[in-house]
Every structure is written in C-alpha cells, then in structure tokens.
Specification:
The structure is a homodimer of 468-residue chains.
Chain A: H1 2-7, H2 13-30, H3 32-42, H4 46-69, E1 75-78, E2 92-98, E3 102-105, H5 119-126, E4 131-134, H6 140-156, E5 164-166, H7 172-180, E6 186-190, H8 193-204, E7 212-215, E8 221-224, H9 226-245, E9 257-261, H10 264-278, H11 288-300, E10 305-307, E11 312-317, H12 318-323, E12 335-341, H13 344-353, E13 357-363, H14 369-379, E14 383-388, E15 427-433, E16 454-456, E17 459-461
Parallel strand pairs in A: 1-16, 3-4, 3-6, 4-5, 6-7, 8-9, 8-13, 9-12, 11-12, 13-14
Antiparallel strand pairs in A: 1-2, 2-15, 10-11, 16-17
Helix pairs in contact in A: 2-4, 2-6, 3-4, 3-6, 4-5, 7-8, 9-10, 13-14
C-alpha cells in the first residue's frame, strides 16, 4: 500500500481539484446511512454530524478551489542577468512541490471533519501527496463508508494508483510501523499528547527523520478581567456553560481553564457557572475508553470539585494550581477548572507561566485595555489563536485561521491543521536554475498560463514575463 | 545570556531594519583588519574574503529591505459575517510572529557569510528573534571582530537588551547545552551530518522539542547525458575542474559525484578531468582538522583513485558504487568521483536511488530532452535545486533561491538557508479573533498603513479595509 503511494505521481492541479470535488460529492451521496452509522458509533447527534459532514465537504471543496487558483505554490522567479559583475546572475525559478506519501491518523472526536476525509487528508491530497489513512477504532464503519467513497471518486477521476488508501487494522503498532516506513514522508495526527509525542519520537528516530504535525492537548485558558467580570458575569457563565459542555466537552478547544481575580463577584460567577454546568443534559461520550479516561482524570483532581453533575466545575487558587501538576493536565470531557488569582499581576504572571495552547481567550471591557494589552503580550508566546470576548470552541475553516500552537498543543507551532494554510505542511520548495523552458513546470514559465500570483524579481505579479 | 535573549521584545520593523543596516555598515567599517585577520585564520584568499564580506553585508541589507517592505509576515484577514447561518462568522486576522530566541552555529567554510553575521543570524534577527551565536573554533578572532560590530550597532540603534550575543567558548558541550536550554526556540546550523544530527536529536529529545535547521552534507551529483558528453566533453571537464577545486573543494555545493554512461568519449573526458584536477595550484585547507579529515576520507576510497595531485579524481562503475557505502559519503575537500553507468536506464535508476541532496546538475543537449525529463522527474524528489548545463557552486542570494534539500542534505527539506525565504524558518502564525482595533498589531488593522500585501477574504491586496 505504501509502495503504491510512493509510485504515485501528482496528476496536476485540474485533475486533483476534480478528484477532491468528486470525493465531496460521493460523501454526500452516501446520504443518511453515513450520518446514522456515525451517530451509532460515536453517540454524537444527527444534527451535529450533519453539520460536521457539511464542514468536511466544504473543506474538500475549499482545497479544490485553492489548488485550482494555484497561487499557494509560492512561485518565485528571479531573471538572469548575464552581464552582472563579478559573476553573471543565473535564472532561478522556485515553487512548492509535494513532500511525498503522507500518513494521516484520524481523530476520535471529529469522525468526519478530522478523520478519513478530514482536513489532514484534504490538505495533503491538495498538496499533491498520496495519503495512507489509519482510521480511528472508535468509528470503523463510518471510516469504511468514507474511504470507499474517496476510492470510488479516485477511480472515476482516473487518479494514479496509490493516491488514497486506508489500512484495515487500527492498532497502535500498525500506526508506528507506518510512521517508520521509509517511503512515508510526513504524518498528520489529531489526538492525545502521549500518542502524538510517541509518533513524533518515532519519526525523528528514523534514519531519515520526517515531520509530524500532531495536534494534541490544550487547556484553552479563558481570562476574565475585573471589569468584564463585574459587568458581564452572568452572561459569561452562560457562554462558558455552552462552550464547556458542547459535544460533551470533547473538543480540543474546550475552555478547560478559567482565570480571574478573586472577588465577591467571582464567587457569584462561580456559583452560577457550577449550577448551570451541573444542570446540562446528560451526554454519552464517544467511546467507553474515553468515558473511563474522563472518570480517571476527574478522580485525580477530586479534591477540587466545586460542583458536580453532568458537567464538572473544579476550583482552586493560583498558588495551588502552580504547585499541583495534576491540575495542569487537560481533562477531555465536560469539566473546567476555575483558578482564583490574588491580583491582576498574579493573573498576568500565570499567563506567562502557561505551556503552549491552541487558544487563549480574554474577556475584557474597553476601559481595561492596558491590562488586556499586557495579557496579549504574554499570550502571543503561548497560544496560536487569541479570542476576544468570545469562546474558543467553533474553529472557523478559513484562510486566516490558525489552529495550532506551541508545544504541547502541537509538535510544530509554525503550522495550522485547519484552513487553507494547512496545505503548507505537505510541500517543499524546488529551485530550477537556468532551465530550458520546455522542461520547466507550467507555473514557472514566462507565459503565466494559470494566471497565478508569482514573485518576479521580488515583486508580486500575475503578468507574463517578456523573454529577453 | 539566554535569559537576556528571552526577555527581548521585538522592537518593530523600522528599528530592526535600521539595526541590520547599521550592523552591515559597522562590519564594513572594520576595514582591512577583518579581511586580513580572517585570511590568516582560514587560509582563504583576500579576494575571496572581500567577495564574501560583500555577500554578508548584502544579506543583512536584503533582510533589512524585506522587513521594511513587510509583506513577508503573510498577513491574512477574514472579515466577520454576523448574519451567517447557522453560526455567525468571526473576524479573523493572522500574521507571522517571531518564534523566540535562536541559536546559530557558525560554519567553518564561510567565516563571514555563514558565520557570526551570516544568513542564519540575519534571517533570525529579521524575523524578530534574538540570536545567540556559537562561533566556529576555526576563526575565533574574525568572530569576535564581527560580533563586536553587531553589538555596537545594537547599542547605537537602541535595540532591546539580548537582541544579539555570542558565547565565548566554542566547545561541543556548550553547543549542546544551548540547544537544550528551555528558552531557546530554534537552531540554525551549517556543518557536518554528524554534528547536525546530534543537535537535531538533542532538540527533539527536549521536553519541548524545537526545530533545527541543519544544512549538512551533499554529494551534489552532476549528470552528463550522452549527447552533451559527445559535444562538450572538454568544456565540461574544464568547468568541473574549476567547480570542484573552488575554495580547495570546501563548498557544500561542490560537485562530488559525476554520473555518465560509459563510452570511449567518457574515457577521454575522465583522462582530461583527472589531468586538469591534478594540476590545479596547491591550496591550504581551512583548518588542520579539516585537512586531516580530508586525508582520512581519501584513504577510505584509495582503491578508486584514478588521478591524484592537488585535487583527486576517483572513478568506479555504478555496480561498485551501489555496493560500497564508503563511495557514497561526502568528501569535504578537492576530490570528485566519476561513476560509469552501463546505460542511460542505469543512470536514471541511480538517480532514483540517491539520498537527499542540496543540488543536482544536468548537462544535456536539446535533442535529449525526453531523457532529461525522466531524470528531472527523479531529481525533483532528491535535490532542492536542479542546475541546467552549469555547476552547483555559487549559491545566488535571491528570493527564488532554495538552498536546502531532503535529508541528509538538511534536517528539514521545507526550508532554505539562503535567500529571503530563509526568514520563514523563524516565525510562527498567530490568529486574533474578534479583536478590538487598538489591540491589533498595526499590520492587521483596517488601515493598511504599511501598504503590505495582505490576503483579505482570500484575495491578495494592498488596499485598506473599509469598516462595516
């Protein structure tokens, strides 16, 4: 299977875009069976899965449009100057090319959008890389339905053999074997810190190391500054209840840490938040294993339970939080931890001590802008996305999205797994020096037939280049 | 020292650009003393070092211009749509920000252009990262002269403390300690595969792994196709002699492997090349250690010496080359290996079996374009830069340059260490969601005061954004 992927040759942008669009259509064509199968396997609601299917299909179409437009390859042309002294200047033409076969490890919590036909698969295929998927054991029938659709689309669109495949077995050992396979050139992963780090370590221990883009854990701290707490404590408690309990708390961007200055208003806020969290409707978790892990996580911090129910509010002070490593671990499920700070200085200091995060959120009022700026200065070093007066759940799929962050949120803070920029993970540049025109890729010829943006002698342009 | 670097705050593009330009001026202001000191320490000629100083200074100025122009930060803005169903679309604004303190390991063979004020330092500083340099032990006085100039420029330009520093000691252990220091966020390195891999392994074994951009070894294969050999064998022998012996063979892009189909013309070519190489003027190597390593490398392959003198021609057939690992190792110094293939199929197959390379070169005539295309298809997977009818030495500093390649040429094939794109190694994206305008960085506000290129709702533009 990996050998077939390695023998694959990128069929060019028009074919690739057509394939991605056809895969999207075929996934829609499965119809209700996909949604119902997935709902049975994951306990997620039909509504949620219908929305997730739309997101999955839109991602495939977004990458098809990106590939068709073409400028993502970052074409650069520096024209020759044969008369330059002391040495002539060569003609240099550079663009991005596919990195090679990619292994995608599917997520448990997005059985469609971060799974077999999810963002990693779509962006790797769009980059021109063949993909070998390792499905998540939590939703095997869903995975097979989706994989079958992609394979059918590949056949219909006459993709070269090896463009897409899925391994049957979903064991950890098979996953490691894939990462160690000499023909695999990159890895996409969404899951636990432990799992992501194991793949990262295996990939870097190879004779030829390869990049691993693992999106792992995150506490997603949410800071409530004093005036915002004073003015909007009820509204924030309601917003947080919804965000923490969304999808039974099984989102990588769930706000798992609330940080605020201690005050009588904070007591009222905590009481309201705890009460509302305890009263959310009961939810079944994705798998029994995840459910069991959630119970274990809660038992590790049971001394800090302020209110229990269908979702948990934990609470502590900043000193205890700093001293107790167990409080700093992500709890995957419906729970969040309130940390009471002694002062706003303490709150800023706590921000500066955090590990890497996917997101951080600030609730603030206009009059506390200076304090907010100090907080932003710290959070820029800690989180990939900073949300203002909102909630981190709900990751927009768009060009300006950055879904990533410093370790341990991901293994590479320079790349996103959501949005069009995700394609950049799976490509490397190649430079052609003094090449004859007929051997250059179409995108680097003088005639800019695809009308893409190119950096010509340092200036962005869509123009053709006039021969000397 | 590392603590001071970590406390550094990026002073903004105008200050940074001014600092880089002032550093360039201060290096020039050292005058003849820099060139003569460096010549004494490295045995490189005054002419060569005068050229290398110009390259170093131009690199600093190039990055200053890049920072001042500003579009490199890849600003992206997706405007909000509060009316979107089922959920409102947030306002997302994303740009690149500095990765954090960078350690730069200096090269032996470019005591100015890949050393204290070389491409790694210039690109990291330009990205807004503070730099801690580990000098190369081969040219300590040169390193101190240059470091002193940069520090003076930093003081004059009122850079924040920690912007630039150089450690005094150049031991391997100090280097590893730097890579393991928790406040260091990235590493640039130019040197041996063994050294680069050791730093890469140390960086990835950290609790928080960090990227290592190590530019290591490369054979830089040069393919001569039959018609080119027939028509231009004398010219190619002369060109190769100059390229192989340039700087006493101490370039990372030295063509160390010549691959051609066996024929009577190849015999004539080999005889001529061997004769010319043996007659180049004697050259002193950079250090005694490098000289000793060169002698050791030659002794490992002494059975294959076709002609010896001041530079060596080694020769073998493709079968022996494949079987003998010693022949596949880079020899740093004035030597190159000719591999005779049984057929052009054998030549293409050999190309497909190569390890990662910084460069590959093809000599071909227009009538053998189909064969050349087959070769290009293989070399695209193997090398960062493909040179046509030329020689790989002489790495142009330009936007379209890619000086990188698959492992073991570098530890990360996605990035270049030469040219403007080198800045991308030292930056990570950050996304601001629904931020108030006064807390956004200048580059992401509606008013595009710096007139940079921005991707606004998916379209590149220099325009201001009209508020809703």
């Amino acid at each position: 299977m990996v050998e077939a992927a390695a023998a694959y040759r990128n069929p060019g942008p028009e074919s690739l875009a057509g394939f991605l669009e056809r895969a999207a259509e075929m996934i829609v064509a499965i119809g209700e069976d996909l949604i119902l199968t997935c709902a049975r396997e994951t306990a997620l609601s039909v509504d949620r899965l219908t929305g997730e299917r739309a997101r999955t299909v839109n991602q495939l179409k977004m990458f098809a449009a990106l590939v068709r437009e073409g400028s993502w390859i970052d074409a650069r042309i520096d024209k020759a100057n044969p008369d330059r002294k002391p040495a002539p200047k060569p003609d240099l033409r550079r663009m991005l090319t596919p990195l090679g076969p990619v292994t995608v490890f599917c997520a448990s919590n997005f059985p469609l959008a971060f799974s077999v036909a999810g963002g990693d698969t779509a962006s790797a295929l769009a980059a021109g890389c063949p993909v070998v998927v390792k499905p998540h054991p939590g939703h095997p029938k869903t995975s097979t339905l989706v994989a079958t659709s992609i394979i059918k689309a590949a056949e219909e669109c006459r993709m070269p053999a090896g463009a897409f495949s899925m391994i049957e077995e979903a064991s950890i050992q098979i996953g490691l074997d894939l990462v160690r396979h000499p023909l695999i050139k990159a890895v996409g992963f969404t899951g636990s810190t432990k799992g992501g780090r194991a793949l990262f370590d295996a990939a870097n221990a190879r004779p030829e190391p390869i990049p691993v883009f693992a999106e792992m854990g995150s506490l997603n701290p949410l800071f409530v500054l004093p005036a915002a707490l004073e003015n909007r404590w009820e509204q924030i408690a309601t917003g947080l209840t919804a965000s923490v309990s969304l999808g039974t708390g099984q989102f990588c961007t769930k706000p798992g840490l609330i940080i605020a200055q201690d005050s009588p208003v904070l007591d009222r806020f905590a009481a309201r938040l705890g009460e509302q969290l305890s009263q959310i409707p009961p939810g079944r978790m994705l798998t029994d294993a995840i459910s069991k892990r959630f119970e274990e996580s809660i038992s590790m911090v049971q001394n800090f339970i302020q209110q229990k129910g269908n979702a948990y509010l934990l609470a502590t002070d900043s000193k205890t939080f700093r001293a107790d490593d167990a409080l700093q671990q992500e709890i995957f499920g419906p729970a969040t931890l309130l940390v009471r700070c002694g002062s706003t200085d303490d709150l800023i200091e706590l921000a500066s001590e955090l590990e890497g995060q996917l997101t951080a959120t600030i609730h603030a009022e206009p009059q506390e802008s200076a304090l907010a700026q100090s907080l932003v200065n710290e959070l820029r070093e800690k989180a990939g996305r900073i949300v203002w007066n909102g909630y981190p759940t709900g990751v927009e799929v768009a060009p300006a999205m950055h879904h990533g962050g410093p370790y341990p949120a991901t293994t590479d803070s320079r790349f996103t797994s959501v949005g069009t920029a995700a394609i950049q993970r799976f490509a490397k540049p190649i430079c052609y020096q003094n090449f004859p025109h007929d051997l250059l890729p179409e995108e680097l010829r003088n005639n800019n037939a695809r009308k893409i943006w190119r950096l010509v002698n340092g200036t962005l342009s869509k123009e053709d280049i006039l021969p000397e």
